[in-house]
Design a protein that fits this description.
- It is a single chain.
- With 190 residues, the chain is of the alpha/beta class.
- The protein has one domain (4-187): Rossmann fold (3-Layer(aba) Sandwich), CATH 3.40.50.880.
- It is 25% helix and 30% strand.
- The protein is built from 6 helices and 12 strands.
- The strands form 3 sheets. The protein has a 7-stranded mixed β-sheet with strand order 2-1-3-4-12-11-10. A 3-stranded mixed β-sheet has the order 5-6-9.
- β11 (158-164) and β12 (167-170) form a beta hairpin.
- The N and C termini lie close together (6 Å).
- The mean pLDDT is 94.
Length: 190
């Protein structure tokens, strides 16, 4: 059971994720050290700029600790840039990744900041995610999913929410809406 959720607080909308998770009854704390990481049952890696977050992970010496905890089964949710960092590889200006999900991330696949948009998921979304509205800001695409990767939602036929074992990745920003279903699904991973 998830009792305490950490948010990797290097960059991104940490407070919006905190608000969403606390609204679902989770105890939430910032993660900026290995000690912080070892005190949580699950982790959110928020959006932001994947290069900046990757450099922050390296600066804080968290790369190996993150990989170890995720490999041991700690639930993790990556949104936008966080999804990029969870991938096995990255196209379009690669960054160091955690390799936790068997997908390839394509950075800025939908365009620049001015190309940001919101859209509802396709009709074939997983039960409970019907009509989910997704906010895309310089969003990545997740491609070449391995056989263990489950697509939970698509927009215009393209995967936008995926799960593999204890790892969830959203190419959008679920924290920027009032809909808590993605965060609730993440909490259910445990």
């Amino acid at each position: 059971m998830i009792e305490r959720v950490g948010i990797l607080a290097i960059q991104g909308d940490v407070e919006a994720h905190r608000h969403m998770l606390e609204g679902l009854g989770a105890e939430v704390c910032d993660v900026l050290s290995e000690r912080d990481l070892n005190s949580v049952d699950a982790l959110v890696i928020p959006g932001g700029e994947s290069t900046t977050i990757a450099k922050g992970i390296a600066r804080l010496g968290l790369q190996e600790a993150l990989q170890k905890r995720i490999a041991e089964g700690m639930p993790v949710l990556g949104t936008c840039a966080g999804a990029i960092l969870l991938a096995r590889e990255v196209e379009n200006h690669p960054v160091p990744v955690l390799g936790a999900m068997d997908v390839t991330a394509v950075r800025n696949a939908y365009g620049t900041q001015v190309d940001s948009f919101a859209a509802a998921v396709d009709d074939d979304a997983a039960p409970g995610l019907e009509d989910l509205r997704c906010v895309f800001i310089r969003a990545p695409r997740l491609t070449k999913p391995g056989s263990g990767v489950e697509v939970l939602a698509r927009v215009d036929g393209l995967p936008v929410l995926m799960r593999e074992r204890n790892v969830m990745a959203a190419t959008f920003h679920p924290e920027l809406t009032s809909d808590s279903r993605v965060h609730a699904l993440f909490l259910d991973l445990a």
